């Protein structure tokens, strides 16, 4: 990665992180309700029976209510578990599942790990992002877990990133390993992008 791209990503991430930290609790709760509604509609549109979704941190667009309700509806939800080799393991969300702090302080499920291959069973992937641009290019938080995961899949299902409305940008800095997404979900809308061949 060139220094210019690296510096541009770092600066943009810092700005986005600061904006997220400044959001009020009321704004976070309203955003989580909107995300829940948009994701429910997305799952219904694809007829998804197995999905992956991340457990949101306190500053991310809220996904936890959606995950809880999806499990209650009988949808199989795979939750990511970070590994030291840069790959993601997956565990099935359960109604009474224990959540602990994983690598990098992220909330992760405690339970049986299914390995990276479990993602092949998913009908829809819901992933975190710092920002998404108008072409569907995703800016992550710099650890590369999702870029590596998406780049290694032979038959990737639709991939939707979750961000706040203000984080859908005209352009984000990108490098060769960065992966585009099929669409983006915000608290107020879902945007589909032209399907990118993987």
Task: Output the keywords.
Rossmann fold, seven-stranded mixed β-sheet, three-stranded mixed β-sheet, 12 strands, 22% strand
Walk me through the structure.
- This protein has 198 residues and is of the alpha/beta class.
- Strand 2 and strand 3 form a beta hairpin.
- The protein has one domain: Rossmann fold (3-Layer(aba) Sandwich), CATH 3.40.50.
- The longest helix is centred in the N-terminal third of the chain and has 22 residues.
- It is built from four helices and twelve strands.
- The two termini are 21 Å apart.
- The strands form three sheets. Strands 3-2-1-6-9-11-12 form a seven-stranded mixed sheet.
- Helix content is 29%, strand content 22%.
- The model has no long low-confidence stretch (mean pLDDT 92).
- It is an enzyme of class 6 (ligase).
- One of its GO terms (molecular function) is 5-formyltetrahydrofolate cyclo-ligase activity.
- This is 5-formyltetrahydrofolate cyclo-ligase.
- It catalyses: (6S)-5-formyl-5,6,7,8-tetrahydrofolate + ATP = (6R)-5,10-methenyltetrahydrofolate + ADP + phosphate.
- Pfam families: 5-FTHF_cyc-lig.
Quick synopsis:
The chain has helices at residues 3-21, 25-46, 64-72, 145-152; strands at 50-52, 76-82, 88-92, 99-101, 107-109, 124-128, 131-133, 138-139, 159-162, 168-169, 183-185, 190-192.
> Structural class of the helices, strands and pairings?
alpha/beta
Radius of gyration over alpha carbons?
Answer: 16 Å
Topology-level CATH name? Rossmann fold
Can you tell me the residue ranges where pLDDT is under 50 for at least 5 consecutive residues?
none
The level 1 CATH classification is Alpha Beta
Helix amount, in percent?
Answer: 25-40%
User: Helix and strand string, N-terminal first?
Assistant: HHEHEEEEEEEHEEEE
* Main β-sheet, spatial strand arrangement: 3-2-1-6-9-11-12
Number of domains: 1
Alpha-carbon distance between the two ends: 21 Å
DSSP, total strands:
12
By DSSP (H or I, 4+ residues per run), the number of helices equals: 4
Pfam family, one: 5-FTHF_cyc-lig
Enzyme class: ligase
InterPro entries: FTHF_cligase, FTHF_cligase-like_sf, NagB/RpiA_transferase-like
Cofactor: Mg(2+)
